[in-house]
Amino acid sequence: MLPSQTISLTIPRNWVDLYETIWKPDYFPKWIGALSETTLEQDGTWWKIVGAESAKKIRFTDHNPYGVMDRYVDTGFGKETVVPMRVVGNEEGSEVLVTIFRQPFTSEEKFAKEIATVQQDLQRLHTLLTT
Known about the structure:
By secondary structure, the chain is an alpha+beta fold. Helix content is 24%, strand content 35%. The chain has a single domain (4-130), classed as START domain (Alpha-D-Glucose-1,6-Bisphosphate, Chain A, domain 4, 2-Layer Sandwich), CATH 3.30.530.20. A five-stranded antiparallel beta sheet has the order 2-3-4-5-6, with no helix packed on it. The chain starts with a strand and ends with a helix. The model has no long low-confidence stretch (mean pLDDT 92).
């Protein structure tokens, strides 16, 4: 089993409304820093990241009534990395949860940077939706 860290952020918005706003793949570049300078082009069930340093593809969980927004990244090395994401209700608001798995051979330092990046991304999402 891989070590993991789940990062969450509260957003003062109904969870269904929030999910319906952010679940579409073309919304992700608006708040994920690594995708902000890229575009996503659909290629079947995958989305190509155009403009990234290396050729990558992402597959997203289909729209669903549960707030599940997992994404699967194909880095081109024959391995798919999963990034589980959930939007869950928290009274009148929502919790957005993203789980990061520490991949084999990833140093503690790099894993800590990945966690910090997700925290920044979630803060960007919060700002985008509340200002």
